[in-house]
Amino acid sequence: MKINRRAFFQKGAVLGAGLALGSSGLLAERKDSSLQSDEHDIFEVIKNRRSVRKFKSTPIPKEHLTKILEAANSAPTPSNRQAWKFFVIQERKTLDQIKEACIKRSGERSRQYFTDYLSAPVYVVVLANTKTRNPVNDITAGALAAENLMLAARALGYGTVFCANSIREEVTKEVLNIPDDYKRICITPIGVPVEWPKTPEKKSLEDVVLYERF
Ligand SMILES: Cc1cc2nc3c(=O)[nH]c(=O)nc-3n(C[C@H](O)[C@H](O)[C@H](O)COP(=O)(O)O)c2cc1C
Questions:
Q1: Which domains does the chain have, with CATH numbers?
Q2: Cα of 102 to ligand 1 centre, how many Å?
Q3: For residue 11, how far is its CA from the centre of ligand 1 (angstroms)?
C-alpha cells in the first residue's frame, strides 16, 4: 500500500469529526452513540474502527490494556506457536525519543505530524520472531494479532492505527533495542481520539468480491 506521507503531514490525517462514539471515547463513559444497541457487537466494532493519528492524554486503565493485549494474544497463529511479542511503551521519555528520531529523518516540517502521532498514552509494537520454521506465516499471524488488538481497543472506545511506515521500523528497532530476530509488524498507538475520523470511502463489495470465477 502506498502512503502519501506529505498528505499525512499536511492534513494530520484527521479527516473530520464523524463521531462514532461519544467524544469521551470510553465505552464506560459513553451515554449516546451508534454502538448503543450492543456495546460489543462485533460488526459495529469492525465497522467503527478507524485509524486515528491524534490523541488526548487520557490514561488507559491497566485492566483495559490487559484486555486489549489478551485479544491480541488470542489471534490465530501457525501451529499455535505465538511467535509474537507485544512491546508496550508508556514512558513519555521513550516516546519522545521515537518522535525526535522520526522528525530527524523527515525534517522539521514533520514536527506537528509526529507530535500528534506520538500523543497517545500507550504504544504497542507488534513483533514477530522470524527465526522460526515458517517466518512468513508468523509474520502473517502478527498482522492478525494486530487486528485483534485494534478491534479490542475500539470496543473499549480507543483509537489505534496500524503503522507500518510513518514511524520507520529502523527507528523503533534502534530506540527500543529490538533484537534482529524480530520483525516489526507494526506500531500502534492506543488512546482516546481527539476526534474520530470519518470513514474513508471504501470499495463496494461488487468491486472486491468474486464468486466462483475470477
Ligand atoms: C499494512 C498497513 C500499513 C499501514 N501503514 C500505515 C502507516 O505507516 N501510517 C499510517 O498512518 N497508517 C497506516 N496504515 C493505516 C491505513 O492508512 C488505514 O487503515 C487506511 O487509510 C484506511 O483507514 P481506516 O483504517 O480508518 O479504515 C496502514 C495500514 C495497513 C493495513
A1: 60-196 (3.40.109.10)
A2: 17
A3: 15
Q: What is the CA radius of gyration of the chain?
A: 17
Provide mean pLDDT across the span 54-63: 98
Buried-state track 144-159, b at ≥16 Cβ within 10 A, e below 16:
bbbbbbbbbbbbbbbb
Give me the pLDDT at residue 30, please: 44
* Ligand 1 geometric centre to CA of 201 (Å): 13
What mean pLDDT comes out for the span 25-33?
41
Q: pLDDT tens digits, residue range 133-190?
A: 999 999 999 999 999 999 999 999 999 999 999 999 999 999 999 999 999 999 999 9
- Is pLDDT above 60 for 6? no
- Lining ligand 1 with CB less than 6 A are 1, 3, 50-51, 53, 161-166, 200
Phi and psi of 22, rounded to 5°?
-60, 155
